[in-house]
Amino acid sequence: MDATQPDLSTSARRLLAGATECFAASGYQATTTRDISNHANLSAGSLYVHFKSKEDLLYELIRSAHGELLTALRALPDPAAGSELQLVTDQIRTVTHWHVENHLLARVAQTELPNLSDEHHQSVREQRAAIESMLTTPVVTGCEAGVFQCADPRLFVRAILSLSIDVIRWYAPNGRYTAADLAQSNVEILSAYLLRPGS
Amino acid sequence: MDATQPDLSTSARRLLAGATECFAASGYQATTTRDISNHANLSAGSLYVHFKSKEDLLYELIRSAHGELLTALRALPDPAAGSELQLVTDQIRTVTHWHVENHLLARVAQTELPNLSDEHHQSVREQRAAIESMLTTPVVTGCEAGVFQCADPRLFVRAILSLSIDVIRWYAPNGRYTAADLAQSNVEILSAYLLRPGS
DNA sequence: GTCTATAAGTTGATAGAC
DNA sequence: GTCTATCAACTTATAGAC
Question: What domains can be seen in chain B, in order of their start residue?
Fold first, then answer.
């Protein structure tokens, strides 16, 4: 999955999966290391064989979540000149889709940042700046090329992220909508703004 | 402010204000009752003279936050037939404005719901259903009247709430944008969808 | 690598003096 | 209504047997 951490033992992976469920359901602070260990069918002390601390485990989750989203965005094809709208809509679909499909991990990654150490928080901030930058580029380029119109690319990128990320607050599987439904809805709402007549 | 709780002592109000800051900064679980008491210049045990428990204090914050937003929405003028777009944009402005202007309290109200008791949670869910219902009505009516077009009013109302609420994740005073800026941006993005050509 | 036992500190809430 | 003192329970993390 991630070249920077290829050799996780199965116990470590079970701990990460258990922690994702616990943190997503109850929050980082309300989750005890025993909760996590039990979810992984291990006993209390065993967590510390695989992770330096509870915070270290949280960092591993948040770091890999942002890494996955970055990888998905980097896989999108570059736009031909004049077709920046295609890349923007591809990105909206990708970000929405990832947050829906990984809504538990995404909830942890988006809500538990303040519980990271300063160093870890800084490291994640860099990943987040990279994501924001990737989303901003085609919006600015498309505006300059006159392909679509956007009063403030910074606020438009915030809107992309707000609509995509906010699903973590309310999405539940087996609900009314699929990930594709939600991605399509976000694309339609946001592209209507870019293509609105009477600028 | 709120007819259902008119006689808070100044100590109680200082505790509520201190708890808002602490919960918004560190989360409900990471905040201790001593943190709250100290912020209100009181000592440990005094909190329990004014509130039955830490959870009771949280409920009071979340309940009044939702009450304030409901009151603001109810104050908007009813639309003349055919001008439902006016009410929808008024609502978008109101919801965005309230979340920006009260971003600390709003953060608590939107993120700490799972820490309420079942009874209190149910009570807040009813307030939230009332808000969602108030936002849905003019969207549906305007669609039926052909004033604007909306494929799925439920998803559109979610988009209103997502764009308005998500400011609590990143807004900071003294930043680049005012509440009016953000309200205006949300109105423009969302109304462009309702008024898009080629339905 | 897993377990049990335990250390050292913190928590929400109560009791009782003033 | 405020304070200090305190309880009982719980927390992260470590130590040492297997």
Answer: 7-51 (1.10.10.60), 54-194 (1.10.357.10)
